Amino acid sequence: MARPEVCGRKPSAGKELAPKEPTPRLALSIPEFCEAHGISEGMFYKMKKQNRGLTPREMKIGTRTLITFEAAAKWRAEREAASTASPEKARAKREQ
Q1: Where are the beta strands (DSSP E) in 33-85?
Q2: How many whole angstroms separate alpha carbon 94 and alpha carbon 96?
Q3: N or C: at which end does the chain have fewer Cβ atoms within 10 angstroms?
């Protein structure tokens, strides 16, 4: 399409392009995940090293390691369940 300032044409009013919607993000990098959940990367890797399922499921794409939003949500639910179950277990042990 010719530029109006060069060819002298008036811009057509009916053919304006709508702004393109940004592509939604479907996963987080490890630094983004840590920032979103308020933990340090060191703590993330420490939990990963313990290898007891304390970190969310990861996927590798080339050299990048990503965590899907679904895996992050499942991890949050598991961590919440573990933190609410711990006081109940401790209370049950004290009562015995």
Answers
A1: 59-61, 64-68
A2: 6
A3: C
